[in-house]
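BUG: 3D viewer hangs when loading the predicted structure for this chain

Environment: internal workstation, default settings.
Expected: structure renders.
Actual: progress bar stalls at 90%.

Input used:
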Amino acid sequence: MSIKKIFVSHSSKTDENITLLKNVCKGLAECKTDKGNLQYRIVYDQDGTIVGGDDWYKSIDQWMLEANAAVILFSKAALFDSDWIKKEASILAWRKNLDPDFLLIPVLLDGLKPDEFNKGLFGVLKINRHQFINNTSNATKIVTEIHNALAKNASFQDLAERNFTGTSYDPLEGILAELIAANSSPETLNKVVTELDLELPLWPPEEYKRNALAVARYLVNTPNESMTHLLDFMDIMQRSMPKESVRNLLNYIKGIWVNHNASAGLPDAQQTHKIIGLNGNKVENYTAKRYCERAWPLSSKWDLIHINETSFTENEIFSDIDFAITASLETVKDERIHKRIERSKLAFIILIPGRIISNGIYDDLSEKLRKRYQGAIILVDIGPDHPPWLPETIEVLMPLIDTEEETNQFDDYQDTKTLFNNLFGTN
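Structure tokens produced before the viewer hung:
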């Protein structure tokens, strides 16, 4: 979902215009596109009674700088008597000159006409080059026209379904910021930001939300350091955040060090039916799970199936996989397996240990695995390198894992779990 920040400029000196202002802002805040992919965050002086001061001026300037679009409600008082509106209109017109994608929407109230903006300051600012909304004082109609203008101006990226792909951590960043803000006191967040010397974003205007966003960015913007950053955050917070919330933070970020291009090979293999290989020193007990978390981000709809250490024969291997998929200890027919995999909303990833390749049965086993477990993903642990003897039927996920980094991530994860247990206990 894309959230557009909308700044509303106004000078409302009558009860009617104050009511209209609030109804317009409320209506915009409740607006969504048909698919709910575009929402608006509205900023305005809610009471119409703010007295200017240094902090207030700074906040207003920041809001106008950060906004994706702006609406100016021009009443007669705003047009003829308000220096404040003239200042904001000047800044917003400047924004438009610098950024063609910035949308500026003038709304004419009190019977004002577009030609009244052809002279004076507003003529210099060329406010009249923008499409006015006029001939109405109905809040619902004004909201509809503003919404239509904003939706029309939105990019396809704004309106598309958002997926956690590529190098973007925006969805995760927002989830973490919301989690942190909802489960931390403003005082504790201030302490974290101060001790970690974090840079605050300009938006949103509320300090505790900016702090929460700064912490979220600290946790995710450098993926290879996310776990150590979380450890530092937890140490400062101690037990001031609920145990389950801290556990959620840990679960969200423990896999983001994994290369997104490599992890994309897992769901791709589900479509192409290729057998894929994953290198690394800790694939069976750690790394494969992290790849699954990165391949299906912010979701748990996957099941990583392990082969028992004592299983070497074909029948033993099939028995392990069948039990994991069907929970049956009896022999299961192919049709039952096929139907189970097809109907499930989970992605089944069958992890074949490297020792099975080296003992010589893999060549006969691979085609049987592909046939019996159609729709599942066959993942092979190929060890730390890309061995020259690896069968051509296995497509290795690239780029290869930096095994030193893999070990560092595993160690950092263990340290963070130890701190978690020290804070909250093991139960």
